[in-house]
Amino acid sequence: MLDEKPVKPEILCPVKETLKILGKRWTILIIKDIYYSPQKKLGFMELRKLLVEVSPKVLSERLKEMAEHNLISKKVIAETTPVRVEYALTDKGADAVTIINNMKKYGLKWAKDGEFDCEKKDCEICTQERLKK
Hints:
The protein has 7 helices and 3 strands. It is mainly alpha-helical. It has a 3-stranded antiparallel sheet with strand order 1-3-2.
């Protein structure tokens, strides 16, 4: 009989598991755009206008995955022509905004002067970080 090493049970790392959900391209930006929208919800076409680099197919896939992970809720409004779909953050999705805000702080802290500029002119975090410099 060969000397076999016992198999250790996999220990789940919270960072690794969070990255599996939030680390896919566009996910963080979708959360950011929904959260900072005036009504806290956006339709598919509104997201397309905000995320011009993403193809409709990829955006659709990402929204489906995010709904499966309970990051967003999907509401179909059948009374409109064409039928409108709105996406809003769940509590789980809204909790990710703290990660986004920390990413903004990190980016602003380590940016060269003038390298980054927040698209949201009244962003509290960006304003606070700029005042520190």
